[in-house]
Amino acid sequence: MGEDDRREHAAMSDTAGWPEHDDGHFQAEREERAALVKRFLVAMDEAGNPGVERDFGSTVRELTGQEADHYWEAEVRSPDAADEPGRAVRVYTDGRHGWSDAMTYADRPRAPEDEISPRQLEAALDALLKEHGVSWPKDGSGG
User: Fold this and answer.
1) Cβ-Cβ contacts under 8 Å for 49 (sequence gap 6 or more)
2) Which of 17, 74, 104, 142 falls 20 to 30 Å from 134 in CA-CA distance?
3) Which residues of 99-130 are buried (b: 16+ CB within 10 A; e: fewer)?
4) Please, what sign has the CA dihedral across residues 72, 80, 130, 2?
């Protein structure tokens, strides 16, 4: 399995195992999120992964000879509730992504309600790209 395949698998597997919740939009949103993350990772990789942070918990992984986890994080705020605190979105370099607080407990959402909407994910990815002076791939690569 190549690096792109691993990233796509990680992006798609975040919600595996909940077919009973598929109302026709669940799978489509899952695929949309995976495509967004894949395009984001292509753009960041081409730019040299600016701003990537090492996951604090990955020290043990490094000590055991495994690759450390690296990620980007952005806060998403509702435009309807600008005075309320936002919620952090985390995107790992291997394609895992989601709400940071939900990912603290597991590498994947625990329930369908833990899913981030494609619109919210795209807002977070846009913010991260802008923060680091990177643009979405123009040729549609990765998506």
Assistant:
1) 70, 93
2) 104
3) bbebbeeeebbeeeebbbebebbbbbbeebbe
4) positive
Cβ 74 vs Cβ 129: under 8 Å: no
pLDDT digits (tens, 9 = 90+) for 72-108: 999 988 766 667 778 899 999 999 988 887 776 666 5
Residues in the chain: 143
pTM of the shown model: 0.73
* Sequence letter at residue 16: A
77 token code pair: 């705020």
Sign of CA dihedral 104, 45, 117, 34: negative
